[in-house]
Protein: NAD(P)-binding protein
Amino acid sequence: MVKVAIAGGSGQVAREVIDALLAADKHEITILSRNEPSSKCVISPGLHWRVVDYNDKNALAVALRGTHTLLSFVQPLSETGYQSQKNLIDASIVAQVTRFAPSEWGAAGTVNMPWWVVKEQIRQYLKKVNENGRVLEYTLFQPGLFLDYLASPYQTAKYVAPLDTTFDFQNRRAFVVDGHADAVMTFTTAADLAAVVARAVGYNDGEWSEVSGIRGNRVTVSRVIEIGERVRGSSFAIDKVKLEDLEAGSLQTSWTMEKPKKHQAVSDEEAVALFKTVTIGMLLSSVKGAWDVSDEVNQLFPDYKFEEIETFLARAWGGKP
Structure:
């Protein structure tokens, strides 16, 4: 048993992981949060809640004392800088935390994704911390895109809510960068991510690798559409967008989401503009390999069976209009 702290533990992805850790029944878990738990929050046995101020490094160090593993789910979209996670790292070093995982939970790269600039800053800060020798063991958990998002507007994960992407399975359509239908993307279910992260927390046969790629499904854009057409029973309308238009910040498409499914950290007013920014960024970054994640976790746990994309989508869309 180890003591595990979860920063930003009220978030959707965090709650998926917390449930998997509780199911393992091996750890003492403390949720670090800026706020008291809501009335809807059920505190399970073995789970503790601690209100913290991410701006107070000394208080954070006290809160982290005795912690073996710290998993961060601090939301980059709500950060104006990267101070919260920087303070968590500094406090972890003072408190002698053994392992740290920053708020990644996505792509391997951050190219053309300005909404994730904080992730790149934290990556660089962690490298700097260990530049003269390992001070803090850390890893970047990268599952690619949640496969659950391809079921939007239906929710398939316990906590991770639907989110619209460049693939619109409901209306049988998609955006594709002209000439780049062979771009590779990684899709992993939220349930699989949670399960293997829980395994990684309990792993004690060696150190974590600096990157922990989680490769649920590695497929091309054209393969996603091919599967989509099969499970939805008809062809997809494909909007081919020019790479040069995207690089210029222009999204020349015949349709857009009037009320896109959005992340909980985004306001209704911001959602439409952010959808355009994210769409351009997703298309560009996929062409540049950002969503082709590595497979360190697959190699670490070769017996784990990830849900296959076609099986998942057939179940998610079976019987849907």
Remarks:
- The longest helix spans residues 268-287.
